[in-house]
């Protein structure tokens, strides 16, 4: 939550690229009753199955790899996606997505997976999973931008309904 949505809750600031000083993060977290140390933080970064967090090259800063609801610039370059990407959601949201497409809402980007299995896992977090196939290459050819985060999540601003198909 602190590295993606509300750094102010413990009194830290993220720079324009989402990085924060590790020592300050640990000190401020500990001062706010969240007890951990550098070793614990390293373990979290190394073992998080979604690779949600990353250290910088000098290992003195940390950031979330994607999923921010606050404005930051991840430094990703626009790149051509594969022909298809996938979006996992719950069955209860299918109708509204079919009407409005995929919207980033409070996040900076819509998150897409390169494989169906990951999309199913994402969808399961919200109820009975449903997977949309996204015609990503067609979108790219129609001038939509795509980025890939440090942890392999594909990002785009939105996916209009004409680029969404039922994954059968």
Automatic annotation (TrEMBL):
Protein known as: Probable RNA 2'-phosphotransferase
What does this gene product do?
A: Removes the 2'-phosphate from RNA via an intermediate in which the phosphate is ADP-ribosylated by NAD followed by a presumed transesterification to release the RNA and generate ADP-ribose 1''-2''-cyclic phosphate (APPR>P). May function as an ADP-ribosylase.
- Which UniProt keywords are listed? NAD, Transferase
The opening ranks of the lineage are: Bacteria, Pseudomonadati, Bacteroidota, Chitinophagia, Chitinophagales
Q: Which residues form a coiled coil?
A: none
Similarity comment text for this entry: Belongs to the KptA/TPT1 family.
Q: What class of enzyme is it?
A: transferase
Q: Which PANTHER family match?
A: PUTATIVE PHOSPHOTRANSFERASE, TRNA 2'-PHOSPHOTRANSFERASE 1
Source domain of life is: Bacteria
Which EC number applies? 2.7.1.-
| Keyword Transport part of the UniProt annotation | no
